[in-house]
Design a protein that fits this description.
The chain is α/β, with parallel strands linked by helices. It folds into two domains: 8-135 and 293-322, 3-Layer(aba) Sandwich (Rossmann fold), CATH 3.40.50; 136-289, Aspartate/ornithine carbamoyltransferase (Rossmann fold). Helix content is 37%, strand content 14%. It contains eleven helices and nine strands. A five-stranded parallel β-sheet has the order 7-6-5-8-9, covered by helices on one side. Strands 2-1-3-4 form a four-stranded parallel β-sheet, sandwiched between helices. Helix 6 (172-183) links the parallel strand 5 (161-165) and strand 6 (187-191).
């Protein structure tokens, strides 16, 4: 793996499978007698969040702590950022504090690249979401969840039929998933109204469709995306009711999917809009499982970037036994 994780474009299929395999092993070890592993003892991980977040920030914090790293949580609200401090000065302050890894979420697309390539940080930079551009660890945990349910937890996702539905235009999750899933061999279809598809989407390695109903019978994994109203400054569809009628996942629609198919959602959920409550709470929805898998997937990323190696999983067992 490279020193940073900024985008799923950084990952080869071998890199991605290594992360998924490492996450699986870490998940097995985390359920043993020692839920906290000493692998990153003495390392410092900084969560640098310029946007509000619940799942991602807590997930990274839990992942680092389970690997025994010291964690510093930095939120823009109430900090010197509100007083006008630049990203450079914030980064150099963190570097002076001895940050081995910086996990950054930022509203500006490209901010993690600036942090990684400007020489302000000596450690690793992990992109936890930048603007509408990328969210690589979300795509990794989604791939892990699909692999566990649909590929017995091993290998790649060759031939898997994945349908991503909703607000593609504003979704960094969709962009990262298209890249990673196609790298792993899956066939991806994007379903959205024309107004919620980005310019140039026809160049993405995915099939484009405007009809959800056409794809339900042939979908192995259906990912519903939240409509990001906070990023919209105009009307992208006639009404919430009309959007839900055409693109919302109801029990009736779910019944048309193959029996083995699963439903995913990166959260938070707009119940009753992109997904009905009875669907979100059904056994076929793996939304809570995605949250659990997010912790072990991010553990794997931190382990491989900061303390591990491609053959280092055996060391974890030795550390667990002797700690």
């Amino acid at each position: 793996m490279t020193r940073h994780l900024l985008s799923c474009e950084d990952l080869t299929a071998e890199d991605a499978i290594l992360i998924l395999d490492t996450a699986k092993r870490l998940g097995e070890l985390s359920t043993g007698p020692m839920r906290k592993l000493p692998t990153l003892r003495g390392r410092t991980v900084v969560n640098l969040f310029f946007e509000d977040s619940t799942r991602t920030r807590i997930s990274f914090e839990a992942a680092a702590k389970r690997l025994s790293a010291d964690v510093i949580n930095f939120a823009a609200k109430g900090s010197s950022v509100e007083k006008g401090e630049s990203l450079k000065d914030t980064a150099m302050t963190l570097e002076a504090m001895g940050a081995d890894a910086v996990v950054i979420r930022h509203p500006a697309s490209g901010a993690p690249y600036r942090l990684a390539n400007a020489g302000w940080i000596g450690g690793s930079v992990i992109n936890a979401g930048d603007g509408t551009h990328a969210h690589p660890t979300q795509a990794l945990l989604d791939a892990y969840t699909m692999r566990e349910h649909l590929r017995s937890g091993t290998g790649d996702l060759q031939g898997l039929r994945v349908c991503i539905v909703g607000d593609i235009l504003h979704s960094r999750v969709a962009r990262s998933n298209v890249t990673l899933l196609t790298t792993l061999g899956a066939d991806v279809t994007l379903v959205a109204p024309p107004t919620l598809l980005p310019i140039g989407v026809e160049e993405w390695p995915a099939t484009i469709s405007y009809s959800l109903d056409d794809h339900l019978p042939e979908t192995d994994a259906l990912m519903m995306l939240r409509v990001q109203n906070e990023r919209m400054n105009s009307a992208y569809f006639p009404s919430a009711r009309e959007y839900s009628r055409r693109y919302g996942l109801t029990s009736s629609r779910m019944s048309r999917m193959p029996e083995h198919a699963i439903v995913l959602h990166p959260g938070p959920i707009n119940r009753g809009m992109e997904i009905a409550s009875e669907v979100a709470d059904s056994p076929r929805a793996v939304i809570i499982e995605q949250v659990r898998n997010g912790v072990i997937t991010r553990m794997a990323v931190l382990y491989l970037l900061l303390g591990g190696s491609e053959s280092g999983l055996g060391d974890l067992v030795d550390e667990e036994a002797t700690a």
